[in-house]
Amino acid sequence: SKCISTADLCNNITDCLLGEDEHDMICAHYCEWPSSNICSKKYSTVCSDEEFHCDGKCVSITHRCDDKPYCYDGADEPFDCANVTCPYGYFKCPSSGKCIPYEKVCDNIEDCPIIDRIKGITADETPQSCNLVLNHPNTIVTTQKTPQTNVTCESADLFRCKTTHICINHTYVCE
């Protein structure tokens, strides 16, 4: 009885004493050609950068590392979520590793899991996250923030917006 990584399931290498990690009961739902107790091919499809394999299908990476079981095979909640790399255009929640599209950062909706709270605010709604996204090239962010009167900019190079209280680079301010 030992724990193995989901990456070691159905990879044609027997890690469990009785070969349970390669058995049809586990592998059939995401193998192309399951045969007598051996999984001959793990995935038949190639997922985009914004997707991952979940039970043999490609699903959005927004389901990965969100502390909500989504995949029967456990692919959405790997043991190493903190080491997950998010694709271009996505914000990574620092503790959970969840990937959030930039347009969902700083929108007054907490998208990062509770584990990512910083001083009572989830990581995707902090002034630092808002600044990161606003300063990211080719990113359009439409915010409908409730005014936060206690927000201060950390740098003299930043300007605090009067209505949204978001800190932005001075170069984005029209005189």
From TrEMBL:
GO terms for cellular component: plasma membrane. GO terms for biological process: vesicle-mediated transport. SUPFAM superfamilies: LDL receptor-like module. Keywords: Disulfide bond, Membrane, Repeat, Transmembrane, Transmembrane helix. It holds the Pfam family Ldl_recept_a. It comes from the Eukaryota. It is found in: Membrane. InterPro entries: LDL_receptor-like_sf (IPR036055), LDLR (IPR050685), LDrepeatLR_classA_rpt (IPR002172). It is a single-pass membrane protein. Gene3D superfamilies: Low-density Lipoprotein Receptor. This is Vitellogenin receptor.
